[in-house]
Specification:
Elements (H helix, E strand, L loop, with lengths): L5 E5 L3 H13 L3 E5 L5 H7 L4 E5 L7 H11 L3 E6 L4 H9 L4 E4 L4 H19 L14 E2 L8 E4 L4 E3 L5 E3 L2 H11 L6 E2 H7 L9 H19 L5 E4 L3 E4 L3 E4 L1
Parallel strand pairs: 1-2, 1-3, 3-4, 4-5, 7-13
Antiparallel strand pairs: 2-6, 7-8, 8-9, 10-12, 11-12
Helix pairs in contact: 6-7
């Protein structure tokens, strides 16, 4: 994937949009996010994009209308992302010019590969001729982060330090879970492996406990530091730490 590929994500679900942006940025794309189509035209005037990932069920103007408008004036790659699974919806989207149609819950690695293949073909046939304007702030835009400052984790004391240096004291289970994730950054760690790291291997009764522990860890980190801990869920598989972290012994 070209490290400078620009991807615009239009998704009204805040958690999903944040997950998609973190993942795409983590694999080298310059990803921007909008919560609705309201700010789309202004955003496209500020900069060019190589691809758009667009939800169908948006508030106000829906994704099919966005797709039709984009396709009428642009050759950018368009991936529709929606909870709708009906064949007629997929055919409608493809008929309007979508390059690909993914049904939620989407596999993040599948989305990455779809974009990789679509953009690779674009670069091979057209070259990368997009402009290089910097994005401007907008009330509906999710800003790109500055150069990443790492989180730090002190394994002997179960202490997590945010990029700004705020301290987050972890419990035994939280520490075991986090260490398992950060030892394999940006990889999807399956649920069984995480449960084993927490000392609860093969016990179905603890499946829900895993999700509760992740939720508690995210909430604790955000309350203590004011920053979101970049642990993302990959439905049906497990969790992934999508940030930069330094382990301090």
């Amino acid at each position: 994937m070209n490290a400078q590929s620009r991807v615009l994500v239009i998704e009204d679900d805040d958690d999903l949009r944040d997950t998609l942006l973190r993942y795409l940025r983590g694999v080298g794309m310059l990803a921007r996010g909008l919560e609705s189509a309201e700010a789309l035209d202004a955003e496209l005037e500020r900069q060019d994009f190589d691809a758009v990932v667009c939800d169908v069920n948006l508030p106000g103007e829906d994704g099919f209308s966005v797709l039709a408008r984009l396709r009428s004036r642009s050759a950018m790659r368009i991936v529709m992302l929606t909870a709708r699974g009906m064949a007629n919806d997929r055919l409608h989207g493809l008929g309007l010019g979508a390059d690909y149609y993914l049904v939620k819950p989407v596999n993040l690695r599948e989305l990455e590969m779809v974009l990789h293949n679509l953009l690779q073909r674009s670069h091979e046939t057209q070259g990368h001729g997009q402009g290089a304007r910097e994005p401007a702030a907008h009330a509906h835009a999710v800003d790109e982060p500055a150069a990443q400052v790492p989180w730090r984790y002190q394994g002997t004391t179960w202490l997590l330090l945010s990029p700004a240096g705020q301290r987050v004291q972890l419990s035994n289970a939280e520490a075991r879970l986090l260490q398992c994730l950060i030892e394999r950054p940006r990889e999807v760690v399956d649920r069984a492996t995480l449960l084993a790291a927490m000392g609860r291997p093969g016990l179905e009764a603890y499946e829900r406990n895993l999700d509760v522990t992740v939720s508690r860890l995210r909430r604790k980190a955000e309350q203590a530091s004011g920053e979101k801990l970049p642990i993302v869920a990959v439905r049906g598989e497990g969790y992934s730490f999508q940030g930069t972290v330094r382990i301090e012994r």
